[in-house]
Each structure stands twice: as C-alpha cells, then as structure tokens.
From TrEMBL:
Keyword entries, A-Z: ATP-binding, Cell membrane, Membrane, Nucleotide-binding, Transport
Domain ABC transporter: residue ranges: 3-238
Keyword Kinase assigned: no
Name of protein: ABC transporter ATP-binding protein
CDD domains registered for this protein in UniProt: ABC_Iron-Siderophores_B12_Hemin (cd03214)
GO MF annotation list: ATP binding; ATP hydrolysis activity
Family affiliation: Belongs to the ABC transporter superfamily.
Length: 261
C-alpha cells in the first residue's frame, strides 16, 4: 500500500508555496519531512490527504488517483493524525478512538460490539487502556497524541500522516511516542511525519525528505541526506555533527559551541 504526490504545485491567493514537490510513503516505512517554518509542509500533507486540491500535479493511492477513491474507502487506507488539539466537548478517550470507526460503520449507525472490541484492543496495544474513560480534555499532551493515533488505527488505515506529532511533548513523551511509531512501522504501518528537530530522524527513520523552495530537495536515508550543509540550506544556521566514540552519528549542535564538561 502506498501514497504518492507527484510534481505538486500550489499557491495561496497567487503566492506560490509548492513548486514541483514529489513525495511518497509506503506501508512499513517511517518518513520524516523537514522544512523551515512556512516551507509548506502542512500544505503538502493536506494535499496528500485530499483535503486541499493542488493547482498542478497528482496524488495517487495504490496507483489510483485520489479522485477515483470513495471517501470511506480512502479513510480505511490513509489516516490523518493532526497536531494535538483540545476537543470542544469532554469526550472520553474511548469515544474519541471510536470516532475512527465511522468510515467502517457509517454516520448513521452506532458502533457495535465488534467496533468496541477493536477499539479496546487498540487502546491496550498503545498502552492507554487505563485512560479509556478519562475525558480527552483532561489528559496530558502525550496521552492526547496517543489517543489521536488510536483513532487513526481504529480507522484500519495502514498509512498514517502526522503533522508535528512531537510538538509540545516533553522529552519522555517524545521518546515513548517515537518508540510506539517504530513499533507500528515494524508491524507494517507507514508513517509520514513532519518535525522541526533535525536530530530526531537520526534514530529510527528509514527516510528523511527536505522541503526547500517548494520542492523536495533531497529524499533518502537520514545519514545521506542530513548533513551540516543540508541543515544550513534548510534553516540558515551552521551546525556540526557529533559522533559517538565508535563513530555513529549522534546529534547536530550549533557550530563553534564548546561542549559542556
Ligand atoms: N489558508 C491559508 N491562506 C493563505 N496562506 C496560507 C494558508 N495556510 C498557510 N498559508 C501560508 O502558506 C505557507 C506554507 O504554510 P504551511 O502551514 O504549509 O507551512 P509549514 O511548513 O507547515 O509551516 P510551519 O512549520 O510553520 O507549521 C506559509 O507562508 C503560510 O503562511
């Protein structure tokens, strides 16, 4: 299963944002999309999901143009995990996750026993079963992110598109969420996520794509794509790459800084 955007052009009110961007995601891989603020990452994700129509270019799911998919069929292949938001009503975690069953049950039917069992299994699998009856408005940002992932998994989609899933999470929750995402890709899910931290794809991502000047300027293994030169092109800052004693890539840090003892 795969989703692919090819040669996407898009402008808001005549102001170009995307100018020939191409990006694909297949089941079983984790891809990080990096780009400066305003580069067009969220716009590209929305176009991939069919939430915004490109001015030019095509998006296909399993080789078929988005327009050829029924909305409900598509929802069972590709799921969107938005940035953590506060829900207007205090739905419980279980109710939020159950919303993911809508494409399967239809709007007019209440979820049945099989839907409830499916959601129960997913909450268990993601380690948040103990939160099932808690209000979504009264749990932490990390727990909300996991609840939104549970909703996406309940959709039965194999491809997950996530807009800055790590934003606002403390370090512990970032590590735990990344471990969960790694587990999901190991189970065959495809994960496309945006991030602002160039260190994050150094662990666990199979691919990283750089969105610069409206195009994907590089797309490949993080070790090949993420260089100090690439970080300079992306963000306009000079960095150096730190290595472990045995030569593995560890992290970027601003160039010229002395290490703390
Ligand atoms: N609805 C809109 N109407 C007009 N301009 C928009 C709209 N949404 C986004 N833009 C503009 O399009 C550009 C790309 O926005 P987008 O949100 O896709 O970037 P981004 O890379 O996700 O940014 P960030 O990292 O800051 O979230 C920005 O300059 C933004 O101001």
């Amino acid at each position: 299963m795969s989703i692919a955007a090819r040669d996407i052009h898009f402008a808001y009110h005549g102001r170009p944002v995307l100018a020939g961007a191409s990006l694909a995601l297949a089941a079983g891989e984790r891809v990080c999309l990096l780009g400066a603020n305003g580069a067009g990452k969220s716009t590209l994700l929305r176009i991939l999901l069919g939430l915004q129509r490109p001015d030019r270019g095509s998006v296909t799911v399993d080789g078929t143009a988005l327009a050829g998919w029924h909305r409900r069929q598509l929802a069972r292949r590709v799921a969107y995990v938005p940035q953590v938001h506060v829900a207007p009503f205090p739905y419980t975690v279980r109710q939020v996750a159950l919303m993911g069953r809508l494409p399967a049950t239809g709007l007019l039917k209440a979820p049945g026993a099989a839907d409830r069992a499916c959601v129960g299994d997913i909450l268990e699998h993601l380690g948040i079963a103990h939160l099932a009856e808690r209000a979504y408005t009264e749990i932490s940002g990390g727990e909300r992110q996991l609840t939104l992932i549970a909703r996406a998994l309940a959709q039965e989609a194999l491809l997950l598109v996530m807009d800055e899933p790590l934003a606002g999470l403390d370090y512990g929750n970032q590590v735990r969420l990344l471990e969960r995402l790694e587990g999901l890709t190991g189970e065959g899910y495809g994960v496309l996520m945006t991030t602002h931290d160039p260190n994050q794809p150094l662990t666990g991502s199979q691919r990283v794509a750089l969105l610069i000047d409206g195009r994907i300027a590089a797309d490949g293994h993080p070790h090949e794509v993420l260089t100090p030169e690439a970080i300079h092109r992306l963000y306009g800052v000079r960095v150096e790459l730190l290595h472990t004693a045995d030569g593995r890539r560890l992290a970027f840090r601003p160039a010229g800084r002395r290490a703390a003892c």
